[in-house]
Design brief:
Length: 513
């Protein structure tokens, strides 16, 4: 690949599992493949998607998990424990901060090389879709990195908060020094790249659009970005474009899976199928997340959390949503224990053997970064923040019904608000105090936000997105520690911006406070 010597990677081995650091550095940039034809540019963009996902980094930091005690199996991966304790990661691993940093900056580097090649080829019309895809990839990868290593965006504080290096050109100097700048600058540049790239996307060029930034996925990303950017009108606009005229057709019929799947493998394959209309985008990653989630019970999604706050919790729909009855796969933490962690089979490990005799290879999982269900809830949130509670209630009702709630239920804005106002008074676990940096009104607006956050907590369990809501809404998190006092992550806490990898600090990039 042409001139892919980007120093910002800190040359973490996790990003280059089959190439040593020294081999990589010894390669003369100009001897790599020249991107001198449109076909080569398009081929390059296939490899521009990051091979890591943030769920393994985020989920154990949330209030979806608890410490089940030392009698339960603990993951051999230290980062699981560190994430539960809201710490930075100290070991080299693809699922930790180093792996995420490397993968997303590698994605940015690849996009930048494609953009440079397009310019050198004269910016021809046939490469405009490639230019659009590269710009959206670059915007998305910077957005993910900001969500990991920065505080939540706030128009009030972003000009003072540390950002991440925004890289827009291929590396020229192996020892270049990058400045993090401010979070406001990062969001401004994401906005610019996204606006420039999105109109150029052309689905006709993709064999399997779900593995690329197709138009629906790009608009879904725009909806999420502008929601986080506190631009509610634009979030609503892009979500509506992504959802089209029949959003109900893009909602996951998860209740049907138990009727057509014969086991957890088949159930999981249905969940990540490119033929499933709700899967607007799929991301193939190298990860042991399936193992850490399903087989190690020390820090897990406990039965009580499932019943009180997530998959089987009560809501305006009444008791547990019927779609999740029987769809959950139960795993006992240890034989004879009455304590359970409960899971939805969202992730399967697909093992790629390099040597089948020795069993050496790479574990992969396929993630769903954007789905129709997620986008519907982005729009519902944007509508609440716009003050359009009736439209938000309509979106929530669609989601409730798609998960098995009776279509005849009372899902008006008033009924939904009344439920969550009462739930707040009763101290139910599905409702937490909200302290966002932006202004929200007490009463109905806050109640409707509780409704959206509760639905999203159920929808995205195991995916880590709850961590992003915890940051954006200043939600306090309490983690129990077996036989010790609880730990508390306050509404304003420096640990909400995860520390950058130690190799990156060594390379001279400013750490988080």
């Amino acid at each position: 690949m042409k001139r892919l010597s980007i120093y910002i990677l800190a040359f973490g081995l996790s990003a280059l599992p089959m190439v040593s650091c020294q081999d990589f550095l010894d390669t003369i940039p100009d001897q790599r493949t020249e991107l001198d034809t449109p076909d080569k540019v398009y081929q390059l963009l296939v490899s521009a998607y990051p091979q890591r996902y943030t769920a393994p980094l985020f989920e154990h930091r949330t209030d979806n998990v608890r410490d089940n005690g030392p009698l339960q199996n603990e993951s051999p991966n230290l980062h699981v424990r560190e994430n539960y304790y809201w710490q930075g990661n100290t070991e080299a691993s693809g699922d930790n901060t180093q792996g995420v940093w490397d993968a997303y900056y590698m994605s940015i580097a690849t996009a930048n090389h494609a953009l440079e090649a397009i310019e050198q080829l004269g910016n021809p019309a046939e490469l405009q879709p490639a230019r659009g895809e590269a710009l959206v990839i670059r915007a998305y990868s910077h957005f993910v990195l900001a969500n990991v290593f920065c505080q939540a965006y706030s128009a009030q504080t972003a000009a003072e908060e540390l950002g991440i290096p925004y890289v827009t050109e291929p590396e020229r100097n192996l020892h270049a020094r990058y400045q993090r700048g401010t979070l406001a600058e990062v969001y401004k540049r994401i906005d610019e790249d996204l606006r420039a790239g999105l109109p150029l996307i052309n689905d006709a060029l993709y064999k399997v659009p779900q593995y690329r930034f197709n138009k629906q996925a790009a608009n879904a990303f725009a909806a999420k970005f502008y929601l986080y950017y506190e631009r509610w009108d634009e979030a609503n606009k892009y979500a509506t474009i992504a959802l089209g005229s029949r959003p109900e057709s893009l909602l996951r019929p998860i209740g049907n899976y138990k009727r057509i799947a014969t086991g957890e493998q088949e159930w999981g394959m249905l969940y990540i199928s490119a033929a499933e209309p709700t899967n607007l985008m799929l991301l193939a990653t190298t990860s042991v997340w399936h193992r850490d989630l399903m087989f190690y019970g020390r820090y897990g999604h406990h039965f009580d959390t499932t019943t009180e706050a997530t998959l089987r919790s009560r809501g305006p729909w009444g008791k547990a949503l019927p779609a999740y009855e029987g769809s959950i796969l139960y795993r006992t933490l240890r034989e004879g224990s009455q304590t359970e962690n409960q899971f939805l089979m969202k992730y399967l490990e697909i093992f790629e053997y390099i040597n089948s005799v020795t069993g050496i290879g790479y574990p992969h999982v396929v993630a769903v970064p954007f789905s129709g269900d997620q986008v519907l809830l982005y729009r519902a949130e944007a509508r609440v923040l716009q003050g359009d509670y009736s439209a938000a209630a309509s979106d929530l009702a669609l989601w409730y019904i798609s998960k098995g709630a009776t279509p005849q239920g009372n899902y008006t804005a008033q009924a939904i608000s009344d439920y969550y106002l009462q739930a707040a008074e009763q101290g139910l676990a599905s409702v937490q105090t909200l302290r966002p940096q932006f202004t929200i009104a007490t009463g109905q607006q806050t109640a409707m936000l509780h409704a959206v956050l509760h639905a999203r907590r159920i929808e995205t369990v195991h995916e880590g997105q709850r961590w992003e809501d915890i940051k954006r809404y200043g939600i306090k998190v309490v983690h129990n520690v077996y036989n010790q006092p609880d730990m508390v992550l306050k509404s304003v806490d420096k640990r909400r911006a995860i520390q950058i990898p130690k190799d990156v600090m060594t390379a001279g990039i400013q750490p988080n406070p």
